[in-house]
Amino acid sequence: MHRLSESERRGVEATIAAAEKGTTAEFVAVVASRADRYHVVSLTGGLLAAFAAAVVVLLIEPWASLLLSLAAQCVAFAVVYAVLELTPLSVRLAPRKAREVKARRLAHLLFMERGLASLPQHNGVLLLVALAEHQMEIVADHGIDRLAGSAEWQKIVASFSGTAGQGAVATALEAAIRDLGALLARHFPAGADNRNHLPDRLIEL
User: Fold this and answer.
1) Number of other residues whose CB lies within 10 A of the CB of residue 21
2) For domain 6-36+95-204, which CATH number applies: 3.30.200.20, 3.10.310.50, 3.30.70.260, 3.40.50.300?
3) What is the mean pLDDT of the chain?
4) Hey, what's the torsion of the CAs at 68, 69, 73, 75, to 10 degrees?
5) Pairing state of beta strands 26-32 and 135-140?
6) H-helix or E-strand containing 64?
């Protein structure tokens, strides 16, 4: 997956504005470079590297001093830990379940942080794509719980995950927002005073 271009950003934001014209629901789209850090993976990798360094020193120089062995271990730990922390490698090494949990947690935190939980009709929807994790999440407020379990909703979610998973992030966001907008327009139609509570913009983290 890749970060969106300027034209793709404008396309997603235009889709949000268009979808919200027909419904009182509010949409927020988020593209995050990564959902979180994976310190456990980095720490484990560093410790394994330190152990391997100690073994290598022992094989090369059986009578090496304790100071030399400790120095080799410290360097190996620092290098591997830094590489894992500063690159997406730790994400790729993390268990799939951990990636899912972190993406879901970030989506719910952003849902609260961006004010979607305080909308008058409790019909906010947040769409998150975590690029490094290759994870997609859609979080909806309790006002539309009955829709979230419907076959039509699940089809939109599945299509969103499939398209974004293939790398077409902007296309996936636009299609999901457009389809969810049409669905919500039937249950939360826009009235004469359809006030926009949140900015129609794409958030990138």
Assistant:
1) 11
2) 3.10.310.50
3) 78
4) 10
5) unpaired
6) none
